[in-house]
Amino acid sequence: MKIGLIGCGVIGQRRVQNLPPNAKLTSVFDTDTAKAKQIADAHGATIATSAEDMLSTGQVDGVIVAAINSVLVPTMKLAKKYKVPVLVEKPAARSYSELKSLDPSQGDIIKIGFNHRFHPAYLDILKELKNNPNDPIMYIRANYGNGSRLGFEKEWRANVELSGGGELLDQGVHLLDLATNILPELEVKTAWVRTHYWDMNVDDSAWATLSTPQGQTFSMHVSSCEWKNEFRFEVYTRNRKYQWVGLGRSYGPETLNIYKMKPEMGPPDIEERKYPNEDHSWLNENQNFLKAIKNEEAIFGGFKDAVRCLKHVENMYKISKQTQKDEKFKHPIWWQS
After folding, report:
1. In whole angstroms, what is the distance from residue 286 CA to residue 309 CA?
2. Is residue 332 predicted with pLDDT exceeding 60?
3. Residue 268: its pLDDT value, please?
4. Which tops the pLDDT comparison, 323 or 283?
5. pLDDT at 331 (0 to 100)
6. Mean residue pLDDT across the chain
């Protein structure tokens, strides 16, 4: 299959490094021509003069869009115009309203880059929940933070016009997607969005709680002030606790601990599952995209999932803004819907 790449930065490079054997990168585009040339030379691909130039030729079977947030929706609209299947990195847009403006038609293939869905620990959690239907979920809690880097406040993610938001929109959508895939009826109840450390116009930390009509709860925290990369996602049922820790690489080994409550309670039985440190989620997600193009598999993490997540993000920003009217912060958050 002939694949195009729009956006040749770190994530774009990771995508093409994880293309399955039945796919070949044939065309690339980036406003940074040096980056485009580097990837094109490495894969024997041609360099397009623009995104539309690539999409209008009919020479690619699908396109991966790994560009900055402000160009994601315009590029998806071009892909829709020329009927090219597209995998676009999360969050898919700068805001809920921007993403809703896309209005996909039936038959459009739009995959969102929710690669965390393809981590083996998460897939095992889904299997366990499916295999234990009489053990209902009580609540989910999650934490996702990174140690950041010097100059972080000067990158495009810190520019609200380019990014649309900060850490909540960046890492927060991953946690929202994982949780709402399990509990689709979650709605935002409380949110605190703050800029604690970085001298920038977007948030570097966010906390939120969501709840279903049945009372199941999801609590989350994301931050670029974590100082040491951390990922933790926990699902609590009546009789079990599923604790997923780590994503491999700098986030530590990926493990899943399953705590099974005994009838007499007390210390639970523990099952520990360890996974390879190499991250195969990108490859697995790319395979899902290609199989969807060939109508061999349903998209796992698509347009409607991104819409749902960005609606929650919008509500979190609004709720947080309302609660901090009378509070004093060095870097107050503002949000344009």
Report:
1. 21
2. no
3. 96
4. 283
5. 47
6. 94
Report residue 185 as tokens: 């009826």
Q: Residue 225 above 50 pLDDT?
A: yes
Reply yes or no on domain 2-116+284-300 having CATH 3.40.50.720: yes
The predicted pLDDT at position 142 comes to 98
Which CATH entry fits the domain spanning 117-276+310-323: 3.30.930.10, 3.30.1330.30, 3.40.640.10, 3.30.360.10?
3.30.360.10
Domain ranges of the chain: 2-116+284-300, 117-276+310-323
For residue range 57-89, what is the model confidence (pLDDT) as tens digits?
999 999 999 999 999 999 999 999 999 999 999
